[in-house]
Design a protein that fits this description.
Oligomer: single chain
CATH topology of the largest domain: Archaeosine Trna-guanine Transglycosylase, Chain: A, domain 4
CATH class of the largest domain: Mainly Beta
Shape: elongated
Distance between the termini: 55 Å
Strand content: 15-25%
Order of helices and strands: EEEEEHEEEHHEEEHHEEHEEHHH
Number of domains: 3
């Protein structure tokens, strides 16, 4: 068949998922998922998309608490130490299993992002989606795993693996770990769908998700079949962490870097049609965030900070803020992370009291 441009498109196993491929004259092959073009290695006339999956060992209490929360759109799979996590790319599948002797996969989610955070900020971002009832309970768990002094009041830094669209399996649906899982594994094992064990695991999980009703995965059910990347739907917590990191943990206006004083602001509010996406975010000092939401300050489409005359008229002060008026903000170095100009125009026209 042909696509709208008249070029030949090969359909690959449409009974499971509509994966469209186009092979160019130079042999480059592209896969099309939901209209997005993804370059992949051409392998003759039938290219294959491969992805990675991770199976990680989880605490039973973390699982039991979160499986009762069917309303969650994201969870934080944290480790008690601030270890880097580079095993998966965004959109790949993160699964978790219980400790031995319960060698079963009991749930998972779509890997979105990994970071290291003070536990207080992780709690502010995710709350009970950290798998704890309170910050105090979470600190106690971290302290126990670290074997730290129970009186240590440090704001422990932890490793955060943010999963969106989480799902938790009933006991009857638990999946036995692959045959090559070793009892010596205490953290994670990575699988690849290019290998037999990885492909079998993908098929088993995707078949289960296709048959069962998981609220957070409803939009993805029809897309499971052949291995694909799934676009994570960011929640409020993931949005906060991502925006914090892409701004290098500094206020875009003042360059303040005291982390507890910084907040991720939506340029266009969620309730007004804005999304939890990086380009709809600014990292701001708390007071500037409040003024931004109130329309007393804004950022122009050319990335300059502006202050409304209303601050002086209503409150008789604001000298510090007027000193920042007209200054360019510090934007992320990556173009795809910089503030969306359309969102800034919306804020200037619909929120700013200039």
């Amino acid at each position: 068949m042909t696509d709208p441009t008249g070029q030949t498109v090969l359909n690959h196993d449409q009974t499971e998922i509509d994966n469209r491929y186009r092979v160019q004259q130079d042999g480059t092959c592209f896969a099309y998922f939901d209209g997005q073009r993804c370059p992949i290695p051409a392998q003759g006339a039938n290219p294959t998309v491969t992805i990675k999956l991770v199976v990680a060992v989880t605490d039973g209490n973390w699982y039991q608490l979160l499986r009762q929360r069917q309303d969650l759109d994201e969870v934080n799979f944290w480790s008690p130490s601030p270890t880097n996590f580079k095993a998966l790319d965004r959109g790949e599948l993160f699964l978790f299993k219980l400790h031995a002797p319960n060698n079963f996969i009991v749930g998972g989610g779509i890997f979105t992002y990994a970071s290291t955070l003070p536990c207080s900020l992780a709690w502010e971002a995710f709350g009970e989606a950290n798998g704890a009832r309170s910050l105090e309970d979470m600190r106690a768990l971290i302290s126990r795993y670290r074997r730290a002094d129970s009186h240590d009041r440090s704001d422990f830094k932890i490793g955060c693996r943010i999963l969106t669209q989480p799902f938790f399996l009933d006991r009857s649906d638990w999946i036995p770990v692959p045959a090559n899982w070793s009892p010596n594994i205490v953290r994670i094992k990575t699988y690849d769908t290019a290998e037999r064990e990885g492909l079998e695991l993908w098929k088993e999980v995707s078949d289960l998700l296709g048959r069962r009703q998981f609220p957070a995965m409803q939009k993805e059910r029809e897309r499971f079949g052949k291995p694909i990347l799934i676009e994570p739907r960011l929640g409020q917590g993931a949005f906060r962490v991502l925006v914090t990191d892409i701004y290098s943990r500094r206020c875009a206006v003042t360059q303040e870097k005291t982390l507890p004083a910084l907040e991720a602001a939506h340029i266009r509010p969620y309730k007004e049609g804005g999304e939890h996406k990086e380009r709809n975010g600014l990292l701001l000092r708390r007071d500037i965030h409040s003024l931004f939401d109130a329309g007393l300050v804004t950022v122009t489409p050319d990335f300059r900070f502006e202050v409304s005359p209303q601050i002086k008229e209503e409150f008789g002060n604001g000298r510090e803020y007027y000193g920042l008026h007209g200054r360019p903000i510090k934007t992320p170095s990556t173009d795809s992370h910089r503030p969306d100009r359309e969102a800034l125009i919306w804020h200037n026209e619909n929120c700013f009291r200039g």
